[in-house]
Amino acid sequence: QACFPNGRGVNPDLDVERKAPSFSVERLTTILDEGAQNTKLRREVEKVILSDPAFSRENQYFQTPPEQYETAVRKSVHLKEKLDQLGWAEGGVISEDLGFNIHTVFKTSIWELGTSDQIAKWIPLADKYHIVGTYAQTELGHGTYLRGLETTATFEIATQEFVLNTPRISAMKWWPGDLGRSATHAVVLAQLYIKGKCYGMHPFFVPIRSLQDGSPRPGVLVGDIGPKMGMNHIDNGFLMLHNVRIPRENMLGKFSQVLPDGSYVKQGSEKINYLTMIVFRVTMLAKEVLPALMKACTIAIRYAVVRRQSELKPGDPEAKVLDFQTQQQKLLPQLASAYAFHFIMGYLDTFYSKGCAEIKQGKFDSLPELHALASVLKAVLTDRCAAGVEVCRRACGGHGYSLLSGLPSLYCRLVASCTYEGENTVMLLQAARFLIRCFGLAQSGQPLPPSVAYLSSRSFGKCAARDQADFLNPDVYTGAYKHRASRSGRIPATCPAHCYYIIVENFVAAVEKLGNEAEIQRIMKHLCDLFALNGIFSDLGDFLHDGYLSEEQADMATASYLDLLAVIRKDAVPLVDAFDFSDGVLNSALGSYDGQVYQRLYEWAQKSPANTQVRAQHGRVCACDRRRRCLWFWLMRSECPSSCLNPFLFSPSCTGEPGLQELPETPLPEGSEQAVRTGSSSSEHGWELPLFLERSLRASRASLEQP
Predict the structure, then answer these.
(1) Active-site residue among 112, 150, 390, 421?
(2) Does the active-site annotation cover 421?
(3) Which of 12, 123, 194, 378 has the fewest CB atoms below 10 angstroms from its CB?
């Protein structure tokens, strides 16, 4: 309190932002949660979880990678116990620092690709964590190109077994989460061979570790792949298989089976093995990618109204950085994107649920469209969200570089999502192939899938906008996006144009559905306008290229975009408050609800082990009473080596703490006491160096001058 006289109240600069929002923050939160009951349940779950010391994230940023993994595993085990105790469904609780994340994908693959008997046999074991699973698809030499996977599974009729092998080093499974230390079983994707013929990639249920002691099973080589850029709580691993035998019944057989005589029976599309990936892409976008952008916006926008810098006018108080248009151009488009992506995820979820229901009925016609939609949204949203989080991090200046801001960890997670479960360029190309086929169908007058129906009514006219206000008309900017998407249908590299048209069209439709919520509809309309115009402003060349927009219209669109920034600025804090992230969920010194940024940064920094160690060592080697101490010991926390040229601390005065152990007095070398005491030297260059460092410098220089 002596250092921070304002105490723990809400920062006045943040408090004033919440005084008069143009809409009900609580009502918007319930809309985002799809109902007040969902909001209530989510808050109750968060309260129970975050109040449990076992789920504390207090020291998360100071943990080593092994500590992060071990903490994540402990939390996962404790969470399972708590869920069983409270009778909650596992899917109702999400935490980004839990272990066994891919265990969920493992279970999903069994649910989606296994027979009813396989589900009944293995899912209960996985639900109770009697087995821990991973999904082993990616190999050292192949990732997104599934047909190129090299792991083999050969069926032996005599033994009624599949024999799995890793034929070469490039076929080694590499990157699956939970594989490095945790998984006892894996769903392994391998090329199926029967009587010398390859039947393509299929999923197999493979035990890889002993359930008694966790040791690798015979023929299995498994381990951790080493340090990563982030996500150190996940034990990504490698897997090699040498003549590993599994029963015939261990091939997941909902859509294909091998009979005892070696006959191969197939049902449905050959792309059915992509279903698990589609499921995971939809899930990761909803539960990992979009929330990360929302969190980054919350952190950066709250900080931007607390941080003051420079004068808008001479003599004025320093301004909030969010009052600068340059800062608004950084942050508010990210906020608009977060809302746009929320509504497109609702569209994708509905589309996905419908497609899965049809697939379960044996109807596979919608699978190519579902795969293309999930692929393009995975690529565009992960790219855009990763870039958006980085914009938010930079917008926080130097403090954004601190792990304590919460932003670097969000960025590392999103950067990883740009490559795992399908590298984004490949995802765009896969979606582009679907678009090109649909473009051909449109030219021949054949019916098109719903998401690309616009290709049947391609228009090559000009934009009808006559003034700046026209660009706030959804028909105008939706028409511009539709034109770009239609024109670029022949060019796979511009596949994102298709995606952005769907996002803009869906955002407009979502706003229209808010007719009974006038205040919320108004602010959502502003965000929709901003999202669409920011896209035009950022990619003007696409709209000017064929003359759809004139230069004058481009200026109008830009002016409308810039005017919207000031409108949305007034509600920026209430809009991020509506995401309703508690401080425990955000885990950010910059983004806390009370806005006490500087106090929290300082207090969190005190938890660093380095600070604790420095204080302890400082007390133990404290040079009180003008005693001289070893510089090596002071800096390196170890005994002074015999090669130390001047084993004495160059700062002789220090206020020591009573009762602390001190090192014995050591006399100074003759003639060095004055140099050590003042920190000066007799160097001909006049540098202010301790004698120890000066002698080291001279020795280094002498060695360099030798021939």
Answers:
(1) 421
(2) yes
(3) 12
